[in-house]
């Protein structure tokens, strides 16, 4: 079994800065971490490796400093790591990013057929949840998103059964492999790396790929290949108005009535709008 896990090195959300001209995230000088949502997918991939054996390749696109995140993933138990880095990739939106990552996955597939691709549900910087589905579409893979549990994997019949969280409850889905899977937060707990894996992570050579290694069309990556335009990025201003405390005797019905009375008193036009 060959599993590819796409991870992303993201800036610590508490110290994010925005470039005033390009409206992109400034990563220089900001502490970087593995996107927390990606860790749930990495752990699930490692559990499948523990169960069936095989290879887990972690893949990331980013600057050279993203090597630290790949080595962290190796210390958890991943077997191979690929860093996709090139100045031409800078400024890629989700469309360009999914194209670059898909190109790398196809090259990995040529070396050893890929059975599953795991991605985080979303990232804490872009927060779009688009890259995983974009990879699935480009790879013509079955798409299983918001997965809370992998119920069963049958390698002989090439089938996977998962529990998918939806608005109406939980869907139990059976799909064919290969498949792209995004795991929900809380679906598992990330393991601690063993000393052996930590030493292995420190000395394992990474595969460093650039645009010439796997990308066929340079116009589809970076700012040139990114149709998304960020018109403005700003920090919301804090409200000057403070919250009001509603109190009433008589339990919940009286409290609800007091809250409604306060709303109509504060916003007189509300009653007219509701009546109309």
UniProtKB/TrEMBL annotation:
UniProt keyword list: Electron transport, Transport
GO molecular function, one term: electron transfer activity
Keyword Transport in annotation: yes
SMART domains from the UniProt entry: ETF
Record InterPro entries: ET-Flavoprotein_bsu_CS, ETF_a/b_N, ETF_b, ETF_beta_N, Rossmann-like_a/b/a_fold
Superkingdom in the source lineage: Bacteria
The UniProt record lists the keyword Transcription regulation: no
PROSITE patterns cross-referenced by the UniProt entry: ETF_BETA
Domain Electron transfer flavoprotein alpha/beta-subunit N-terminal: 22-218
Known role: May play a role in a redox process involved in nitrogen fixation.
Subunit structure: FixA and FixB form a heterodimer.
Similarity comment: family membership: Belongs to the ETF beta-subunit/FixA family.
Protein name per the record: Protein FixA
Organism: Skermanella aerolata
Top-level taxonomy: Bacteria, Pseudomonadati, Pseudomonadota, Alphaproteobacteria, Rhodospirillales
């Amino acid at each position: 079994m060959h599993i590819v896990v796409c991870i992303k090195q993201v800036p610590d959300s508490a110290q994010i800065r925005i470039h005033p001209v390009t409206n992109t995230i400034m990563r220089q000088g900001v502490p970087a971490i593995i996107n927390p949502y990606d860790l749930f997918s990495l752990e699930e991939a490692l559990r499948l490796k523990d169960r069936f054996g095989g290879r887990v390749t972690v893949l990331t696109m980013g600057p050279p400093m993203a090597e630290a995140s790949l080595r962290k993933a190796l210390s958890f138990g991943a077997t191979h790591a690929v860093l996709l880095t090139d100045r031409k990739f800078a400024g890629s939106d989700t469309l360009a990013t999914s194209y670059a990552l898909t190109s790398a996955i196809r090259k990995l597939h040529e070396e050893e057929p890929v059975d599953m691709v795991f991605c985080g549900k979303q990232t804490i910087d872009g927060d779009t949840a688009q890259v995983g589905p974009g990879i699935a579409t480009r790879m013509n893979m079955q798409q299983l998103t918001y997965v809370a549990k992998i119920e069963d994997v049958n390698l002989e019949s090439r089938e996977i059964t998962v529990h998918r969280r939806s608005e109406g409850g939980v869907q139990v889905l059976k799909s064919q492999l290969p498949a792209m899977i995004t795991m929900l937060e809380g679906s598992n707990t990330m393991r601690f790396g063993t000393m052996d894996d930590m030493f292995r992570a420190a000395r394992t050579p990474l595969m460093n790929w650039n645009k010439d290694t796997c990308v066929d069309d340079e116009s589809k990556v970076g700012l040139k290949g990114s149709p998304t335009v960020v018109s403005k990025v700003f920090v919301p201003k804090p409200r000057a108005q403070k919250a009001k405390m509603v109190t009433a005797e008589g339990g919940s019905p009286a409290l609800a009535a007091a809250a409604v009375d306060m709303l109509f008193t504060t916003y007189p036009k509300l009653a007219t709008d509701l009546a109309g």
